[in-house]
Write a structure and sequence with these properties.
The chain is mostly helical. Helix content is 49%, strand content 0%.
């Protein structure tokens, strides 16, 4: 367990192929596929990798304004998360 004053350190750099692989993920139910991959990328990537992912996401013609199960876009969801600020900036810049 980490001490409260310690931050997680991610030493692994993700290749473009690893980041792009998240585009291939599919939801289990009827969740919007574009929202699903954005949400999964947010949950598993650091902000810099998420920024690269969003670039690939847009290049693939995917929808940044897709709505999730709570009828919110990823930007709306990120605005509610305490740790979502850097990720929200990525989506807003895109």
């Amino acid at each position: 367990m980490l001490k409260k004053d310690k931050q997680k350190v991610f030493k692994d750099e993700w290749s473009d192929e690893h980041v792009k692989a998240y585009l291939e993920r599919t939801p289990y139910g009827d969740e919007n596929a574009d929202f699903y991959v954005l949400n999964i990328a947010y949950r598993y990537m650091v902000a810099d990798d998420f920024a690269r992912f969003v670039t690939f996401f847009k290049e693939a013609g995917r929808d940044l304004n897709a709505v999730g199960p709570e009828n919110k876009t990823m930007a709306q969801l990120l605005a509610e998360h305490a740790q979502g600020e850097d990720y929200l900036k990525v989506i807003q810049a895109a």
